[in-house]
């Protein structure tokens, strides 16, 4: 099985983590890393040693994706998911959905487990971890930012950053455009499964639907910056997505809406048609956020404001995959998410969150603004929103106008990255200030890069950068939390 250099590095770093007694490491694998292939290699190596392995997926759709990848590598695989045609408990490698694990009281014995999309930590996963305490569990995710994830996993392995993948040609460069977005200042929060909070979806959907100019601006900006590109779009509600699709089609731009209420067979037909270029715009609310793999897509229309770093990074990753003839990708941000979170390829995990404090919503609703009223042509009453009490609804063309608002290209503030010599030099300087032994800097360097600084010459420096200082503080917090749990 051929691995890319960053995948080989990931395998060595995971093995080193396990040797150090970290039986619950998380592999932070950015978009296009090839985490399923890496998992296949690890499970294959375990099978060669006579060990039984299990690959746990967080949704049924991903079971088939993993099975296709494992079959392509020639692995002997069984599937634990309902009455699947590939059920084979004798196979040394099992692929299981978390839903199946949650339902079944008795599981076949296994010696090695890999958990896909580990940022969503299910009770069934924790139950399996508590039952099989001597079994290593490796988590895979591009977004290890969930609250309390460090309570289940005890090491973070980061073999390569998204920026380094981009530089190596494994990711497509993205140009970001941003500007006016829906007003979210009045929208309260709602707890997430991954911890923290996000905008309440019902309130956010209504605010977006009530914005009479947003969709018109979306079409105008798509025509200006991304005309002709295979595009996916995210809306905060199914209704807004359908309205936007109607408006695109009315403008002569072929578009289709897709959602989770459709039959799977119907969704597969839509996926194939979009991938083959039969229409340009594929619009949804949340469906395409995870598990959607269409490398030809080179434009994202984002109308869905989110406070969730996980949702933002996963969403941006949909257009970053490489494909033949694909030179770049366009992110049209009508949601303010780039300003809220930064450029997706610059986001890197530094530590796992170990907080136990749950979400506690305070009074987040400010004084309400006066809403725009309309005169109903049927019953002559005044009403707010899109629908009158008598049943009259604004025609799409009347309510989806444009104020000519144009998205502007978002430029990065150029930042010179620290070299490994800079890191080693600044760590050594900190050790000198603190009176630590000489080996401390080398150990910290190894924590950062997964290798000893054997051929690295520490740079001469007079100060410690915020980046290095932040890393040191994160390491100190991790050790303090580990001591408290011990």
Summarize the structure.
37% of the residues lie in helices and 14% in strands. The chain is an alpha/beta fold and 486 residues long.
Write the layout of secondary structure elements.
Layout: H1 5-19, E1 25-28, H2 35-48, E2 53-57, H3 60-72, E3 77-80, E4 93-97, H4 98-103, E5 112-115, H5 123-131, E6 137-141, H6 149-152, E7 155-157, H7 162-167, E8 174-178, E9 189-191, E10 197-199, H8 201-210, H9 214-225, E11 231-234, H10 238-250, E12 255-257, H11 264-275, E13 281-284, E14 299-302, H12 309-317, E15 329-333, H13 337-341, E16 373-375, E17 382-384, H14 396-399, E18 408-410, H15 420-434, H16 439-449, H17 466-485
Parallel strand pairs: 1-6, 1-7, 2-4, 2-5, 3-4, 5-6, 8-15, 11-13, 11-14, 12-13, 14-15
Antiparallel strand pairs: 8-18, 9-10, 16-17
Helix pairs in contact: 15-16
What does this structure look like?
The chain has 486 residues and is an alpha/beta fold. The chain has three domains: 5-160, P-loop containing nucleotide triphosphate hydrolases (Rossmann fold, 3-Layer(aba) Sandwich), CATH 3.40.50.300; 174-361 and 392-410, 3-Layer(aba) Sandwich (Rossmann fold), CATH 3.40.50.300; 420-467, no CATH class. 37% of the residues lie in helices and 14% in strands. It has helices at 5-19, 35-48, 60-72, 98-103, 123-131, 149-152, 162-167, 201-210, 214-225, 238-250, 264-275, 309-317, 337-341, 396-399, 420-434, 439-449, 466-485; strands spanning 25-28, 53-57, 77-80, 93-97, 112-115, 137-141, 155-157, 174-178, 189-191, 197-199, 231-234, 255-257, 281-284, 299-302, 329-333, 373-375, 382-384, 408-410. A seven-stranded parallel sheet has the order 3-4-2-5-6-1-7. Strand 14 (299-302), helix 12 (309-317) and strand 15 form a beta-alpha-beta unit. Helix 15 (420-434) packs across helix 16. The radius of gyration is 25 Å and the shape is globular.
């Amino acid at each position: 099985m051929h691995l890319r250099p960053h995948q080989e590095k990931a395998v060595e770093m995971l093995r080193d983590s396990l040797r150090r007694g970290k039986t619950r490491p998380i592999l932070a694998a950015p978009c296009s890393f090839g985490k399923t292939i890496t998992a296949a290699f690890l499970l294959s190596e375990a099978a060669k040693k006579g060990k039984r392995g299990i690959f746990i997926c967080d949704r049924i759709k991903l079971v088939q994706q993993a099975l296709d990848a494992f079959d392509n590598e020639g692995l002997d695989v069984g599937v634990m998911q309902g009455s699947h045609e590939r059920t084979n408990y004798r196979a040394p490698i099992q692929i299981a959905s978390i839903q199946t694990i949650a339902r079944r009281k008795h599981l076949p014995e296994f010696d090695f487990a890999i958990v896909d999309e580990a940022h969503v930590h299910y009770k069934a996963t924790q139950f399996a971890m508590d039952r099989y305490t001597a079994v290593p569990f490796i988590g895979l995710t591009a977004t290890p930012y969930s609250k309390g994830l460090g309570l289940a996993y005890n090491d973070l392995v980061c073999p390569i950053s998204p920026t380094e993948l981009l530089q190596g040609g494994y990711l497509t460069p993205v140009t970001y455009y941003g500007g006016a977005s829906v007003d979210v200042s009045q929208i309260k929060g709602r707890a997430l499964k991954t911890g923290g909070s996000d905008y309440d979806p019902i309130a956010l959907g209504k605010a977006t639907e009530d914005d009479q100019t947003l969709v018109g601006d979306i079409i105008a900006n798509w025509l200006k910056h991304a005309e002709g590109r295979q595009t996916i779009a995210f809306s905060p509600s199914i209704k807004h997505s359908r309205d936007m699709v109607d408006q695109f089609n009315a403008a002569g731009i072929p578009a289709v809406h897709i959602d989770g209420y459709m039959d799977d067979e119907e969704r597969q037909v839509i996926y194939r048609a979009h991938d083959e270029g039969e229409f340009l715009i594929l619009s949804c609310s949340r469906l395409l956020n995870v598990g959607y793999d269409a490398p030809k897509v080179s434009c994202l229309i984002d109308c869905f404001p989110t406070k969730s770093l996980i949702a933002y990074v996963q969403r941006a990753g949909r257009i970053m995959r490489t494909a033949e003839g694909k030179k770049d990708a366009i992110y049209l941000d009508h949601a303010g998410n780039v300003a809220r979170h930064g450029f997706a390829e610059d986001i890197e995990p530094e530590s796992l969150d170990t907080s136990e404090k749950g979400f506690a919503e305070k009074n987040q609703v400010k004084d309400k603004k006066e809403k725009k009223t309309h005169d109903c042509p049927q019953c002559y009453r005044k009403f707010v929103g899109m629908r009158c009490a008598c049943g009259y609804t604004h025609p799409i063309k009347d309510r989806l106008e444009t104020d000519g608002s144009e998205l502007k290209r978002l430029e990065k503030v150029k930042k010179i990255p620290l070299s490994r010599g800079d890191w080693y030099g600044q760590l050594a300087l900190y050790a000198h200030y603190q009176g630590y032994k000489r080996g401390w800097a080398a150990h910290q360097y190894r924590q950062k890069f997964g290798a000893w600084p054997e051929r690295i010459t520490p740079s001469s420096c007079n100060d410690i950068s915020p980046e290095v200082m932040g890393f040191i503080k994160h390491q100190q917090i991790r050790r303090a939390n580990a001591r408290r749990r011990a």
